[in-house]
Amino acid sequence: MSEERWRPSVTVAAVICDGGAPARYLLVEEQTPEGLKLNNPAGHLEPGESPEQGVVREALEETARVFSPTALLGVYLARFQRPGHEGAAEEDITYVRFAYSGTVGDELPGRTLDSGIVRTLWMTLAEVRESAARHRSPLVLQCVADHAAGRGYTVRVVSTHPSVRQPRAGGASL
């Protein structure tokens, strides 16, 4: 029997808190096939990068701010199912999300937000909870709530072997 091997999508997410009272979290509002949704600054891990490098890159692309990870909030698993429509095939994707908390600087002048990102916004935990119906994933609230509860591990708990950065077979660079 030849079944296709299960391949979850690996993503990274930045949970950014301003440290105020009340604390506010930096989210992005983005265009998706399901409409305008809220998300943590997040995206797919790219070949040749560690999860920590990936989250720094994604946060910069989506917020125009330099992100400095200070803790790993956790590794999360979630499934997304999108019914097929208008000739598009049904999607059934399991995501493995490495979520990091950390700090950001000010927006970088002249830096544009990634394609599909409409804007960034700061929201309190209560506002994040109240907007759950607009979240791109149930992990948005879970990651923010875990941060608010004080969850976090040293970033060194995730190790990336040097082989990840080696050229692919046939000499193609990453």
UniProtKB/TrEMBL annotation:
One of its GO terms (molecular function) is hydrolase activity. Pfam families: NUDIX (PF00293). Keywords: Hydrolase. The keyword Hydrolase applies. Residues 6-145 form the Nudix hydrolase domain. InterPro entries: NUDIX_hydrolase-like_dom_sf (IPR015797), NUDIX_hydrolase_dom (IPR000086). PANTHER family: ADP-RIBOSE PYROPHOSPHATASE, DIHYDRONEOPTERIN TRIPHOSPHATE DIPHOSPHATASE. This is NUDIX hydrolase.
